[in-house]
Amino acid sequence: MVRLPLTPAEAERGQRLGALLRRARGERSMLETALDARVSPETLRKIESGRVATPAFPTVAAIAEVLGLSLDEVWAEINQQEHRVEPAGPRRSAREWLAS
């Protein structure tokens, strides 16, 4: 499967998602968080660094649950700047965006 290049807006959302997860994780180790969420530490590292800007919805949901974040909080945080940027295409729901 060929992945299309990320748009600047998608890359920016990925950076905001990573920053949110790092803040929520606080002093908790990346390894402990990843294992509790049943994802690999490398996956969590890539998401937190923004290298995986559009992680799968179940992955984000599992990490958010472990960190005590609601999906509404996550969605609001990662899309806070969207109001300043014109969408490049049709708007997608949170589930569609995170599942892509």
Description:
The model is unreliable at 83-87 (pLDDT under 50). It contains 6 helices and no strands. 60% of the residues lie in helices and 0% in strands. 21% of the residues are buried. The protein has helices spanning 8-25, 30-37, 41-49, 57-67, 71-78, 94-99. The protein is globular, with a radius of gyration of 13 Å. With 100 residues, it is mainly alpha-helical. Helix 1 packs across helix 3, helix 2 (30-37) packs across helix 3 (41-49) and helix 2 crosses helix 4. The N and C termini lie close together (12 Å).
Concise account of the structure shown:
With 100 residues, the chain is mainly alpha-helical.
How would you summarize the topology of this molecule?
Blueprint: H1 8-25, H2 30-37, H3 41-49, H4 57-67, H5 71-78, H6 94-99
Helix pairs in contact: 1-3, 2-3, 2-4
Output the keywords.
single chain; about 100 residues; mainly alpha; 6 helices
Rg, Å, rounded = 13 Å
Shape by Cα distribution: globular
Average pLDDT for all residues = 85
* Helix/strand order: HHHHHH
Low-confidence stretches: 83-87
Summing up helix and strand content along with how strands pair, one would put the structural category as mainly alpha
What is the CA-CA span between the terminal residues?
12 Å
- The number of strands is 0
| Individual helix count | 6
Largest sheet composition: none
Helix content bin: 55-70%
Strand composition percent: under 5%
